Amino acid sequence: MSPLSISQILTSSSQRLIHSYDTSRLDVEVLVAHALNLTRTQLYLYSDRLLTPEETLTINALITRRYEGEPVAYIVGIKEFWSLDLKVTSGTLIPRPETEHLVELALGIIPGDVHWQVADMGTGSGAIAIAIAKERPKSQVVAVDESMAALGVAKENADEFNINNIRFTQSHWFNSLAGEVFDLIISNPPYIGTEDTHLKQGDLVFEPSSALVSGKDGLDDIRQIALDAKKHLVDGGALLLEHGWDQAGAVQDILIEHLYANVQTHKDLSGNERITMGLFKRKVT
Q1: Are 158 and 137 in contact (CB under 8 A)?
Q2: CB-hemisphere CA count at 13 Å for 282?
Q3: Contact 184, 142 (CB under 8 A)
Q4: How far is it, in rounded angstroms, from Cα 118 to Cα 106?
C-alpha cells in the first residue's frame, strides 16, 4: 500500500468518525496533530508530507480508540481550560467549557488586591483551583479531593504553570479541614442521579463515576456541601455550586433550607441555569 499523506489520513479518518460525532473533523485533527507532534495549523502547512508506516499505525490506533467512544481528552491526556492545557487522566473528570463560567463568577466575587481564602471542593484535575489561583495570586486556594490520584494530577498541572498559591488536601469534602474558614467555597461536585440514562452515553461512560454520581436524584453531595460549608465560611462568605441544567430550583431550596441568603442562579453560555450561589450570615449571639 502506498504511503498516505497527512491530508489523506485526515480525510479518511474523518469519514470513519463522521457518523458517530458532530466534531469528527476536529477530533481527527487533534489526534493526528498529537500523534505527529504538530499543531493543527502545521497539519495543513505540511499536508502533502507522506506518513511513515509507524506514524500511520499510531494514528489509526488513536482513531480506533475514538471510534470506540473514548474521549479525545483521555486519548491525548490534555484538555484546554481557561487557556491552559491541563493534564487529564481517566481518574479525573474532563473539564467542561461551561465550568469556565463558574470561574468567571468566582473572579467577580474575589477582590484582586485582597488576601482571600478560597476552597475548591472536589478539585479533580485542578482546573477551577488553578484558574482562580492564576488570576488572583494574592489569594490562597485550598484544592480538596478524596482521590490521591486526582490530587497528583492537579499538583502536576499547578507545577506546570508555576502556580504556588494552592494547597492540595486529601479529604472527603470538609472532613480534613477542621477549624479552617474561607471567604469563598466553590465546587463542581457530582450531580447526576444513579439512574440517569446519560451515564451510559458519550464521554460519561469513560469518566470516573465517583466524580459524576450522587444519589438517586444527584443532589446528595450538594446537600452535604451546603450543610458542612456553614462551619467553614466567614460571615458573609459565599458558596458557589455548579449543578445540572434542571436542578436550579432544587439547589436553591437546599441553600434556603440551610439559611443561606441572597440565593440566586446564573445561566451558562448556553442559557442553562447551571450555577447557584448563596451567602452565609453567621448569627451574632
Answers
A1: no
A2: 13
A3: no
A4: 10
Q: What is the DSSP string of 162-227?
A: T--SEEEEE-STTTT-TT--EEEEEE----B-TT-GGGGSGGGGTS-GGGTB-STTS-HHHHHHHH
The rounded distance, in Å, linking the Cα atoms of 107 and 157 is 20
Relative to beta strand 233-242, strand 182-187 is: parallel
Residue for grid cell 475548591 = 120
Query: What is the tens place of the pLDDT at every residue in 127-153?
Result: 999 999 999 999 999 999 999 999 999
From the list 271, 277, 211, the residue with the least C-alpha distance to 242 is 277
Residue 245 CA to residue 235 CA, distance in Å, equals: 29
**Overall pTM > 0.85:** yes
pLDDT in tens, 239-284: 999 998 889 999 999 999 999 999 999 998 888 899 999 999 877 5
Nearest alpha carbon to residue 141 among 166, 170, 116: 166
CA 191 vs CA 2, 4, 265: distances in Å: 50, 45, 16
List the domains of the chain with CATH numbers.
6-68 (1.10.8), 92-280 (3.40.50.150)
